[in-house]
Structure formats: structure tokens, C-alpha cells
Amino acid sequence: MTTNPTYNLALQAIGANLDDLALWLAVWAARDDARIEPHARRCASDAVNAIDTMIAELHGIRGHLITETAAADKAALAHADALLHLLREEGGGP
User: In the 8-state DSSP scheme, what is residue 90?
Assistant: First the structure.
């Protein structure tokens, strides 16, 4: 896991849903369409819900990454600007 609790919680939710998804998909895939199988249909609905939950968690991770990388890029540019400023003050830069 990561050191970021936000990512850890999202990854745990994704992992739990992924484990359940495999089972629900297997039940749905093994259904007999010639019979009414409410359990298989329920598993299909549960699979869709698990997928929706994982997509939401992934979207949350994506949002955090975009925000964090933008802040990191801004800090790196500020650092580079500060270094260029120092070089200009010392007469060694453009």
C-alpha cells in the first residue's frame, strides 16, 4: 500500500470489490437462460454495482493525482525560477 491514507482506502475498496466481482461474474456466466435464476440476476446487479464503485474510487484517485501533480509541477517551476533568479543576480546566467 501507499503512505497516503486517501489512496489506501480507495485501493482497499477497489480490491474488495474486485474479489467480489470475480465471484458474481462467475455465477452470472454459469447461468442457465432456459431457467429463471434470481440468484444469477442478483449477482449481475451486484457486479454492476461493484464496477460502479471501483470506477468512482479510481476517479477519486485520478482527481487526487491531478491535484498533487499540478502542485508538484508548480513547486518545481517556482524552484527553477528561483535558481534562475540567483544565477542572474550573480551574473552567471541569461
Answer: T
